[in-house]
Amino acid sequence: MTRNLLLAAVAVLALSAGAAQAAPSSEVAAAVADKARPEADTKRDADRKPAEMLEFAGVKAGQTVADFLPGGGYFTRIFSKAVGPTGVVYAVINAPPPNPAPDAKPNPILAVAADPAYGNIKVVQASFQTLALPTQADVIWTAQNYHDLHLARFNLDVAAVNKAVYAALKPGGVYVVLDHAAVAGAPLDTADKLHRIDPAIVKSELAAAGFVYEGESTLLRNTTDDHTKGVFDPTLRGHTDQFIYKFRRPK
Hints:
Elements: H1 2-20, H2 26-32, H3 39-42, H4 45-48, H5 50-57, E1 64-68, H6 74-83, E2 88-94, H7 108-114, E3 121-126, E4 137-143, H8 158-168, E5 169-180, H9 190-194, H10 199-208, E6 212-217, E7 242-248
Parallel strand pairs: 1-2, 1-4, 2-3, 4-5
Antiparallel strand pairs: 5-7, 6-7
């Protein structure tokens, strides 16, 4: 009896290990291997592990994916190729100010969306507190940005933002949050000071919006990061301790 239980436990562990190390889908692998990606992006792949991140998010061909605050488009380009011609990627950015400065530079994602190689990327300029996408998304993704919602200069109602994200997802859709971890119990102003956030705050805020926590990827965890330095510190930049959480909107 004991031997049978032991064998069953070993089998479960083997299955779990196999699932954790599953190879990315052919669509995801091809998207990461896309020759049109800039060299500056591909040089970051070893640290950012994009294939594993897309597999964790469950990105598939034909889906609608929203890249919430896409920065320079590192993940946006990969999403574009992964969802393919039958899918769409919404790059969600701030609505432009009514009176922009004369020397204001255009958001870099506009150039990415204008590139014929990424014709399924649509830029959505929106108020984050309402976040009306043209169609509901299968996946909403935000990388290293959730803490920014708490920056004092933005003065955002984060609860309203999270409810808007919830409404922008299809029932059963997922919201993936990847961000720089702060020490447990860190106050919200850590976002301004270090550009980090306590992962427990993210869980609590998204649960309040109606999301169900589904799991975590630990691939970008770094136990040598003591969480006391800002994320732009040259001794740490690109190698912070990062959490990746998946939340689902219930059907």
